[in-house]
Each structure stands twice: as C-alpha cells, then as structure tokens.
C-alpha cells in the first residue's frame, strides 16, 4: 500500500468487476434523508411521539454502506485501484468540519453560560472527537445507567462513531476482496453476521457481554453493542454486492417484481417505526381502536427477555425492509416512490440532514433550557417551533461550512466527473471547483 493508492496486481484470476450502472443521481435517497431528519427532529422534541422512529437510523446505515461500497466498486472498475489516501481524505473533509465545530460551540456555550454542564460536555466531546461515543455512551445507556444518560448533551454522535468505524474497515476490505474475487463471499459473511446479530437482539441479548456484569467504562458499550446496529451496515454492504452482480438493464423478472416488493417494503419500513408510538397508542385507545403498541425498553431492573420490546425486532425489520426499497431507487429511477421523494423541498432537507443532525441538540438546548421555552411550549406542539428554528439556525453552517467542505472534498475526487447535487447532473470536477 502506498500513499497514492493500491493497484490490483495481476494474478491467476481477474478481479471482481461490478456490472451495475453508475449510481448517478438518485433523488429518493435525498428524500429518505429529508424525511428521516424530520422524524429525528420530531421525536427529540416530543419523546412519546414514537421512540421507534429510531429505525430511520437503520435505514441511514444501510444506505450509507450501500453507497460507500458501490462507489468503491465503481472506482476500482474505472481505475483498477482504490486510492486509500483520497478515500479517507474525502471522508474526513466531509464529516469533521461541521461535527468538530459543533463540539467547540457546545464547549464555548457552556463556558459562557452553563459552567455546571461543562464537565459533562467535555466528557461527551472526548468520546465524540475520537469516534468512540457508541462504546463509551452507548445506545440504551438510560436502561443501565439512567443518571449518566441524563447528563449527555451530544448523544447523537453515537451513530457518527459507528459509521466512522465502518469507514475505517470498508475500503481496505473491499480492495482485498475485489483483488481476490471474494466479494460474493464478503456478502455472504455480512449476511450471516447481520442475521446472527439480529437473532441475538430477538432473543433479548443486547451485546456480546452480559448485562448483569458491572456497567462501567467500555464494558457497558460492549454489553449494549447490538443496539448500535452494526448489522444494518452489513446489510448495506451485501446489498451493494447484489447490485454489482445485477446487469444493466435488469432482467425482465427483476423489472416486474422489484417495484412490487419495494412498494410493500416501503410501507413496512415506515410502519415499523410507528409500533412504539406512545402517542398513537393513546389516541387509538381513546377511540377504542386496536393498536399494535410495542414498548421501546423494559423498565429499570427488568430483562429484555421478559417481554417483546421494539428493539428486539424493530431495527432488523426496518433495515431489511429498506433493502428492496434502496435497490429499486438505485435501479428503477421512474419508480413512484423515487419520484415522490424527489420533491425539491424534501431533497433539500436531505442535503441538509447531516448538518441538522449534528447541530440540533445544541439548538434545542439553547431554546428549551437557556431561553426557558421548555416552560412555555407544550410538549405536543413544540416540535412546530423547534424544528423550523433548528433548520433556519443550521443554514449558516450548511452554506458556509458544509458547502465549502464539499468543494474542498473535490480535490480528493478520483473521477473526472462527479454528481452536482444542485442539478442532479454529472459535471466535470474542474467546473465545480471554480
């Protein structure tokens, strides 16, 4: 391996070559991100709305792994190489500026206005900047250590840590598997591991380390590791391999059945995210209607095996339902859901989704705690204030930090043409660098 990349050496067998078309513009992907970030904003404003909205993160994970793996396969097909230095540079330029600036903003705010919170924010910051947040302050922390969970300020960084760990793994893995023609085997391994993790959750196991051990330090992160859903990323890698094996155009049977399966799956995907809605369950009970409510977590001291809780099946179901949806969006651009989710306002929210996701907890804290709006806004209605204000507050970061970072990212492009997100067209890199 050199700093300029690694080239597949000649061997007894030719490397794996993707036969899929170039991804190009897929408006539905931005649309899912846009709908997803609105779900995050709504649920964090009103926690009883639907804790199972957490399933949208599983969809994001599948999509992220699918896109990254597909682009790596595409790069190797075009250049017979994957440039590691440029890959990691693109990831760093894309992700770090907004995230690190947000962490600095939290620290400065606490120094000026809330010294008592500063020690907790510094703990969060240390875990966030090193991308181990999911291990130090894992998903489900409130179940094993409610006091520690209540002190968290930037707990959304758990998912960014999971993705960053995936990025460290995937490029080298794909290169090795392409060179040795092991991509199909990689997909099989990913499916097997993802199935095993999903089965572990289904049977009430939250991680490879038992929950009845002392819950301190990194052990609680290992005890709750399956709640961080690495299996959703694995499904995305497997999906990318399936897509790479499917010819263009798709066989007739695939063209007939894929939209039908994806149509059912998109309703299953979003429907799954409503099953732990306390609010909808109460509304249904008020009118005497049945509702398949599933609690999001057991009570403190109770076991996951003591009842059917949403994380036991919901994360797996949301991730698996997204697989045919994402494949249909990538290969059947005229599919009705692709067109519907390509509506420009939703796509714009999708392009802003990373900025809003990173910054929304700070905006919420300033509005609700620092400015005292928590005592003024009703819990059920405050989302209509918090969400729009958050989006507006994030616009300067989006335009002056993230957009500039995206232009810098073009310096590390390995292709002569890249997708212009504003037009949906492929344009020369030199033109976007101007």
Give an overview of the whole structure.
Helices cover 65% and strands 3% of the residues. The protein is mostly helical and 434 residues long. It has one domain. Strands 1-2 form a two-stranded antiparallel sheet. Strand 3 (417-420) and strand 4 (425-428) form a beta hairpin. 42% of the residues are buried.
SSE series: EHHEHHHHHHHHHHHHHHHEEH
Q: How many structural domains?
A: 1
- Tell me the quaternary state: single chain
Unreliably modeled segments? 1-11
The strand count comes to: 4
Task: Give average pLDDT, whole number.
Answer: 90
| Strand order, sheet with most strands | 1-2
Rg (CA only) = 22 Å
What are the main properties of this structure?
two-stranded antiparallel ribbon, globular, 18 helices, 434 residues, mainly alpha, disordered N terminus
Brief synopsis:
This protein is mostly helical.
How would the blueprint of this fold be written?
Elements: E1 6-7, H1 27-45, H2 55-79, E2 81-82, H3 84-113, H4 115-129, H5 133-136, H6 141-144, H7 146-150, H8 157-179, H9 183-202, H10 218-223, H11 230-245, H12 252-272, H13 278-286, H14 310-331, H15 336-340, H16 344-370, H17 383-409, E3 417-420, E4 425-428, H18 429-432
Antiparallel strand pairs: 1-2, 3-4
Helix pairs in contact: 1-2, 1-16, 1-17, 2-8, 2-11, 2-14, 3-4, 3-8, 3-16, 3-17, 9-11, 9-14, 11-14, 12-14, 16-17
């Amino acid at each position: 391996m050199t700093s300029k990349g690694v080239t597949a050496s000649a061997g007894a067998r030719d490397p794996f070559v993707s036969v899929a078309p170039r991804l190009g513009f897929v408006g539905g992907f931005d649309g899912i991100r846009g709908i997803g970030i609105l779900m995050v904003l709504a649920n964090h404003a009103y926690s009883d709305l639907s804790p199972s909205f957490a399933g949208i993160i599983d969809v994001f994970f599948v999509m992220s792994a699918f896109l990254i793996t597909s682009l790596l396969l595409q790069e190797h097909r075009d250049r017979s190489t994957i440039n590691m230095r440029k890959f990691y540079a693109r990831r760093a330029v894309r992700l770090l500026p907004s995230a690190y600036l947000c962490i600095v903003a939290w620290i400065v705010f606490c120094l000026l206005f809330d010294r008592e919170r500063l020690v907790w924010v510094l703990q969060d910051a240390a875990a966030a900047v090193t991308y181990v947040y999911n291990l130090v302050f894992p998903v489900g922390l409130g179940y094993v250590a409610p006091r520690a969970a209540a002190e968290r300020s930037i707990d959304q960084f758990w998912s960014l840590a999971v993705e960053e760990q995936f990025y460290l793994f995937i490029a080298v893995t794909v290169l090795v598997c392409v060179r040795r023609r092991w991509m199909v085997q990689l997909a099989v391994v990913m499916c097997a591991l993802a199935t095993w993790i999903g089965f572990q959750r289904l049977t009430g196991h939250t991680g490879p380390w038992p929950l009845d051990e002392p819950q301190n330090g990194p052990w609680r992160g290992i005890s709750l590791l399956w709640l961080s859903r690495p299996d959703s990323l694995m499904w995305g890698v497997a999906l990318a391999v399936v897509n790479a094996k499917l010819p263009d155009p798709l066989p007739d049977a695939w063209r007939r059945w894929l939209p039908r399966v994806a149509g059912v799956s998109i309703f299953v995907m979003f429907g799954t995210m409503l099953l732990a809605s306390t609010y909808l369950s109460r509304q249904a009970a008020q009118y005497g209607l049945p509702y398949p409510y599933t609690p999001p977590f057991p009570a403190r001291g109770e076991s996951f095996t003591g009842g059917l809780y949403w994380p036991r099946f919901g994360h797996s179901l949301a991730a698996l339902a997204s697989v045919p949806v994402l494949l249909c969006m990538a290969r059947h651009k005229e599919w009705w859901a692709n067109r519907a989710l390509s509506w420009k306002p939703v796509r714009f929210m999708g392009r802003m989704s990373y900025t809003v996701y990173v910054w929304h907890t700070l905006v919420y804290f300033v509005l609700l705690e620092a400015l005292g709006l928590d005592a003024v806004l009703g819990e059920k209605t405050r989302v209509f204030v918090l969400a729009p204000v958050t989006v507006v507050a994030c616009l300067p970061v989006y335009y002056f930090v993230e957009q500039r970072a995206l232009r810098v990212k073009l310096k590390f492009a390995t292709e002569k043409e890249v997708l212009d997100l504003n037009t949906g067209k492929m344009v020369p890199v030199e033109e976007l660098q101007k």
